[in-house]
Design brief:
about 425 residues; alpha/beta; TIM Barrel; 4-stranded antiparallel beta sheet; 22 strands; globular; disordered C terminus; binds iron/sulfur cluster
Length: about 425
């Protein structure tokens, strides 16, 4: 019997798990009003009106056609009287301060802190999802912070974070929120970064790139069959996203989670590596990360380290310059080596930086330039913003300060009393 996501959540009791919100904050911030359910909604800029008050969502390649009163696949966008709304604007259910290496970004401000957040919902249903308690939940099934973009910026500054990361679930489903956070972050010395499955349409993506410094994209396999069977998504739009990020000058790193028997075919990995080199260039950092049994793939073993090593060897021998092994703390494949003099220039142990031998983005030994964001240079960001501003205005681009509607009769929960 196939259970709906909601039934599955209830049966497995994961709803309770999802309510254990990551409260790491100081007492003053802890009073940040954690509420059960919807707090605010915001009109989506990306939909087309159809007959009988139906709409078609144009944010991601699913192009959901949604009847009045219903939601799209991601469960966080709802048709109300022929107008499409995001139900999660300013309502993150997960908020953490993470090392930026955890995203994983290995070429962005090493050892800095990333203010990381996610709302409920996702436009994929990956069988190996680590965060399925929130990615497969509706926003009324999680406890959510009332945290508008302005507050996110304040908190990021208060906690000394140099970046704000939209992560944990697919952040494009809370696009309007991420976009407005980016607009504000660009006025500060804070990077706007994301970890995404790359399943978004070109129009919204190009609009977002104006305020996006770095993207970590999951390239889950180089196979449409894998995407269809394991993620309920498609590969080709993800490849298109990677090409657009390169065109738009957004720093990009790629993550390939290697799952035994599902996507660990070394010929497929070689094909993927060659596509990356040809279309994106040899400088794009590529992370082969270790799978651990999760969610609907608990029957599989963790990825053998030798498989990851073999994949890394293929990446390097095919000409990529920065190929990493992830989720194997202490492995030499976690480190960055200068492609010119081959010396160790960033020594990592898990998410911690042990030693950094870079001078203004160059190898400290031979001066070779290493791609990445090694400092926040306002002039570079401004140049990119202006370049984007001069390009064609993308249809439906959100406007700052557009109206946010409080949700009437939103169910409220008791405040959390103890901090885990
Ligand atoms: S963003 Fe959500 S509603 Fe829109 S097309 Fe994608 S899955 Fe459907």
């Amino acid at each position: 019997m196939r259970l709906s996501r909601r039934q599955f959540l209830k049966k497995t009791g994961c709803l309770a798990a999802s309510l254990v919100s990551p409260l790491f904050f100081t007492p003053s911030v802890r009073g940040q009003l954690l509420k059960r359910g919807l707090i605010k909604i915001k009109r989506s800029p990306y939909f087309k009106s159809l007959e009988n008050k139906k709409i078609m969502c144009t944010l991601c390649p699913r192009y959901c056609v949604v009847e009045d009163g219903k939601r799209g696949y991601c469960e966080v966008r709802e048709n109300r009287g022929g107008i499409y709304y995001s139900l999660v604007y300013g309502n993150p259910c997960a908020v953490h301060i993470d090392p930026i290496e955890k995203k994983p970004f290995f070429h962005v401000l090493p050892s800095s802190k990333a203010f990381s957040l996610a709302t409920a919902g996702c436009n994929f249903d990956c069988k190996f999802c680590q965060n399925w308690e929130i990615s497969q939940a509706r926003p009324e099934e999680t406890f959510n912070y009332d945290m508008p973009p302005e507050r996110v910026i304040e908190l990021a500054k208060e906690f000394g974070c140099l970046s704000i990361a939209s992560t944990y679930v697919e952040p494009m489903i809370f696009y309007e929120y991420m976009y407005d956070i980016g607009r504000l972050a660009y006025k500060e010395d804070i990077l706007n970064i994301c970890h995404s499955n790359g399943f978004v349409n070109p129009g919204p993506l190009r609009a977002l790139c104006k305020y996006l410094d770095a993207a970590c994209i999951d390239l889950k396999a180089f196979s449409e069959g894998f995407y269809r069977d394991i993620t309920e998504g498609r590969l080709s739009p993800v490849l298109e996203t990677l090409k657009i990020l390169k065109e738009e000058g957004v720093h990009t790193e790629i993550v390939n989670l290697v799952i035994p028997t599902k996507n660990d075919d070394l010929n497929m990995i070689k094909e993927m590596v060659n596509w990356i080199k040809k279309e994106l260039g040899p400088d794009v950092p590529l992370h082969f990360t270790r799978f651990y049994p999760q969610y609907k793939l608990k029957n599989l073993p963790p990825t053998p380290v030798e498989t990851l090593e073999r994949a890394r060897e293929i990446g390097l021998s095919e000409g990529l310059k920065y190929v990493y092994i992830g989720n194997v703390p202490g492995h030499p494949g976690e480190n960055t080596y200068c492609p010119n003099c081959h010396k160790l220039i960033i020594w990592r142990l898990g998410y911690r930086i042990q030693e950094l031998k870079l001078n203004e983005g160059r190898c400290a030994y031979c001066g070779y330039p290493i791609p990445g964001i090694w400092s926040i240079e306002k002039s570079k960001r401004e140049a990119r913003r202006l370049k984007k501003a001069s390009t064609k205005r993308v249809e439906g681009m959100p406007k700052m300060g557009s109206r946010i509607r409080p949700v009437r009769n939103a169910p409220m929960a008791e405040p959390i009393k103890s901090v885990p």
